[in-house]
Write a structure and sequence with these properties.
Blueprint (H helix, E strand, L loop, with lengths): L20 E5 L1 H5 L9 H9 L6 H15 L12 E5 L13
Helix pairs in contact: 2-3
Length: 100
């Protein structure tokens, strides 16, 4: 989640629909492997994103829970785990059932 000196980064624009989320995490979370050699990877994150989450907090908790259940054997105590979930809220007059 940090920037590296001298690294090149692409920029772009996107429109986030109401209730939509952006998930930012450290690369090591995608690279973590379990004892079977499977990586947690983008597939796991996309599967979780495809489920109906009512808030950024619930989505964050679900991702962290799934990662904990994954039991990455190459993850060491003290390794950092960083995740940031941003959610575009519904306008006040149309809450859409979302809670902040």
């Amino acid at each position: 989640m940090g920037l590296q000196t001298g690294a090149r980064y692409e920029t772009g624009n996107a429109v986030l629909s109401e209730g939509g989320c952006v998930v930012i995490t450290i690369p090591k979370m995608f690279e973590a492997r379990n004892r079977k050699g499977e990586s947690f990877g983008e597939t796991a994150i996309f599967k979780i994103l495809g489920e109906n989450h009512r808030s950024a907090q619930v989505l964050t908790e679900h991702i962290l829970s799934a990662f904990g259940s994954f039991q990455a054997h190459d993850w060491e105590d003290g390794d950092e785990l960083g995740i940031l979930v941003l959610q575009r809220m519904y306008p006040e007059n149309n809450q859409g059932g979302l809670n902040a």
